[in-house]
Specification:
11 strands; alpha+beta; three-stranded antiparallel beta sheet; 227 residues; 22% strand
């Protein structure tokens, strides 16, 4: 059960933070400041919010729900998505809210959220930075998507993969950046994208598709090990 509470030192002076637990999701939202680090190990793809229809960027940690091939930070070359780091914490207006029922919170073990002077601890300041990056990143994503859509650089991608156990997976509802469209851009548009920083991001997204074959290889390896 989700129980959101505004975080404050009066009500949560004894609260402590534990490492995140549980299975990794197979697709995780990220923001542009994470693209370069993510692309080292993960395919970056766009999807659409089912509620609003707006594009958002994410990384595939696995190829089907309930299954992550890149299960640990080490599997991902040290990359830990901000949206996973902030698990249990939310922005509520100008304040931070927490899901008090999240297993990360304890009053007996973990890192304290407030110090003896009831000021934010190192752990809470770290979480404040994460939330700030995510908040800013949502706006940065929207600006990136506007530019890419205006120049018709976003294209749907159908991914069909076959595995050694005979299973065939088809991934739908995903989008990438067209390398052909990037190559055909007018010089004035290339310069505009370069100046905004969006050209590098676009090429990073397009290049990260190479990681899909790595994910498929990892999945095959895990299937073989489980036999």
């Amino acid at each position: 059960m989700t129980t959101h509470e505004l975080l404050n030192s009066q009500n949560h002076a004894q609260l402590r933070l534990l490492p995140r637990r549980g299975a990794e999701p197979h697709f995780v939202q990220i923001v542009p400041s994470e693209f370069v680090a993510a692309a080292i190990a993960c395919p970056i793809l766009f999807s659409k919010d089912p509620g609003t229809g707006a594009f958002y960027a994410g990384v595939a940690l696995g190829l089907k729900p309930g299954e992550a091939a890149l299960e640990t930070k080490e599997d991902r070359g040290g990359f830990e998505p901000l949206s996973l780091q902030r698990d249990g914490f939310f922005i509520s207006g100008d304040c931070i809210a927490i899901d008090r029922g999240n297993a990360r919170f304890s009053e007996v073990e973990g890192e304290p959220l407030f110090d003896s002077a009831q000021q934010p601890s190192t752990a809470l300041r770290r979480m404040q930075r994460v939330l700030k990056q995510l908040h800013e990143g949502i706006e940065q994503t929207a600006a990136l998507v506007r530019d890419l859509k205006e120049l018709k650089l976003i294209e749907p991608i159908d991914i069909a993969l076959s595995f050694d156990d005979g299973e065939r997976l088809t991934l739908e509802g995903l989008y990438t950046v067209s390398r052909d469209a990037l190559r055909d851009l007018a010089d004035v548009d290339v310069l505009r994208l370069f100046r905004s920083g969006h050209l590098q991001l676009a090429y990073t997204v397009a290049g990260s598709l190479n990681q899909l074959s790595v994910l498929a290889h990892l999945r095959n390896r895990k299937l073989a090990a489980a036999r």
